[in-house]
Amino acid sequence: MKRLMDKVFACMLVFALFAPADASAQRRRAVRVRHPRAALVVHPGHPLRRALPATVVMHPARKVVLVKAPLVFLPALVWTAAVVTLPEREHLVWQDSETIESDDGWVDTNFGIDAKGNALFLELTGKADLNFAEVTFANGNVQVVDFTEKTHQTGLYKLLDFADGRQVMTVRILAQSKSDETKFSVFLSK
């Protein structure tokens, strides 16, 4: 009987040492989907020449979008972070969000959009290092927005402005969370 009690006590001790501190942390871990780690792929002609992370956690797009034109990379634009206000709801034509966690490291996330608009906005909830974004248009042009690997705080920022009303196919963002978790929301406005 003593041996059985010793085993039960040992199991309880191990559980107490490795169990999350609170029930919400336990629920987060239980429902978290582990995304695969893979080599970062940049296509020929990508304008950034600095060393990029070798491997990343892949978050695939929830909506698969097919670009039917050959990809042509435009010269990279260096991003200037300026907090802005979001256009009125009736001017928003598309939005989606993705959450990444600090223990993921660098994350390659992709948003399938396939909608026409005039500007893209990026909202951060949390703190993140941003590397680059790729905005792919229906004609195959890819505009790389260089975040220069800087850390940014919670806020709403204009990601890219294109007043000619273009068909945006996808937005790809390479980032890593510097908070426990960071939520990225992308908006397309008309």
Work out the strand percent. over 45%
What is the alpha-carbon Rg in Å?
21 Å
The backbone outline, from C-alpha atoms, is: globular
| Number of E-type strands | 10
Low-confidence stretches: 4-19, 21-30
Count of alpha/pi helices: 2
Descriptive labels:
mainly beta, 190 residues
Give structural notes.
With 190 residues, the protein is mostly beta strands. Strands 1, 2, 3, 4, 5, 6, 7, 8, 9 and 10 form a 10-stranded mixed beta sheet that branches. The protein has 2 helices and 10 strands; from the N terminus they run ααββββββββββ.
Write the layout of secondary structure elements.
Blueprint: H1 2-18, H2 23-31, E1 37-39, E2 55-59, E3 72-73, E4 77-78, E5 92-101, E6 107-125, E7 128-137, E8 141-152, E9 155-177, E10 181-189
Parallel strand pairs: 2-6, 3-8, 4-8
Antiparallel strand pairs: 1-2, 5-10, 6-9, 6-10, 7-8, 7-9
